[in-house]
Amino acid sequence: MPLANVETEVLIVGGGPVGLTARALLERWGVRVLLVEKHRQLSPFPRSRLVNVRSMEIFRQLGVAERIASSAFAPEYGRIRFRDTLYDRDFATAAMVGVNAPVPESPALGVVTSQDRLEPALLAAAEAQMRFGAELIDLAEEAGGVVARLVDHHHGDEIQVRARYVLAADGANSTVRHLLGIDTTGPGALGGVTTVVFDADLHRWCARRPAGVYFTAHGSFLPLYPEGGWAWFAPTPEDPARADWPGLVSRALGPAAEVRVEVLRVQHWVMNAFAAERFRRGRILLAGDAAHAIPIIGGMGMNVGIADAHNLCWKLAGVIRGWAGPSLLETYETERQPVAHQTLRQAVANTQLLLQVQNRRLNQLQRGEAAADRIELPWSERYFAQLGLVLGVAYRSDAVLADGDTPPEPPAGGTDYVPTAEPGHRMPHLWLRPDNSTLDTVGERFTLLTPDPARWERQAFAATRWPLGIEALPREHIGFCGLRLHGALLIRPDGHIGARWRDHPPSDASLRRALTTITDATPS
Description:
Blueprint: E1 6-13, H1 17-28, E2 33-37, E3 50-51, H2 53-62, H3 65-70, E4 79-83, E5 90-95, E6 111-112, H4 115-123, E7 129-132, E8 134-142, E9 145-152, E10 157-168, H5 175-180, E11 184-199, H6 203-206, E12 213-216, E13 219-225, E14 228-235, H7 245-253, E15 262-276, E16 280-281, E17 284-286, E18 292-293, H8 301-321, H9 330-366, H10 387-390, E19 431-433, E20 436-437, E21 446-450, H11 453-461, E22 468-472, E23 488-491, E24 497-501, H12 510-519
């Protein structure tokens, strides 16, 4: 049956990992959601490959981390390898930190998997309405909401959806962003890329030295699934319609490979690098690739988008449910846009470094130089050392109260991560009980983490307007958290620290005032 004109609280446009994550998060908050996706099904292409440790922390909260990991590669595939051809020896290698082995800074472990394996798990994580084959063609903001026009490709009907807010996760070529007239900044298109999905028996060159990506002088090779399948990434040729794809892949493998290549699918796409000048216009908000297109080298783009959704959804829920004021949504752009720019710079640098290595090695091979040690890779060990970008994100906005009500300093950036309980930062992972992390205490509420819960119970009772829980902090952690015996940390639903009281609260209304300020709620 055609989808009738409907009303919803949040309309999500785009059914990729970011839109699906937002759908699951908002459903947890009890928000009525409709997700529309212009394609008739989830993408059959592998696309994004790396689910980093922070995204897995979020999926742990949604209860789908184990399912995602069960269909992913083993941790030893969390590594990249550089070779002349796939059957040659490595001339460099680097681990994907937080993927190839557990790190003490997180209760979760990132995974190498394919997007077509990830998306079904996220789809199953919620029951909120979702319609495939429904394409947005126009939208307009009106008093109290947004009216969106869509075409139902199954029946040819036009659909009208009224929503209080629209969350646009419709990709780098976002229809919503174009309709809003929001410009982008950054390098733009870095070049055309072709993905060739193929079957071939490559076991003898890879089984003993597994990797998530093999970078060669003739393109990049990626194992797709633990049970088999491969993809080859390379610049799109001048005449792709006439390209001999099996021949191109075979030549890229190398003349000594002597394997049969069966091409299954070919996809041409553009590697973009930009960030939207605005992440919000009124009741319409951009997330994921619609807000920032991050080059794939380094595997950060999808993960940044998932963190966008995690930052935004609790704020939307608060505004819709009335325990937060509308200006709380302004902090979404304030907090996430700097992260997008910082990640974009790192990804562009990764791309340039990769191309330099591939081109330098290709030139050496063409000159007959076989000595791989002529290539210097001073950057290879930090290529995927991204914990500073992944776990070290710190927010500076009106939704953060630093010690003494002074805004926190912005993060210094870089790849190193130093856990800290300073306001604005992600709450460090500390074990409260066996198998129970500080990060497990957050989700659909604020959390007051304190070594003295009894002292704070009265304040929490006076703050019943907000979803709030109290958790006991073991005394062995109070020094690390910068607290004394009666202090507390107020952790936002996205796991970032909103406020800290080092010791006794200044007054019986301290917690209530902090929540009022962070959420822009009208005092009552």
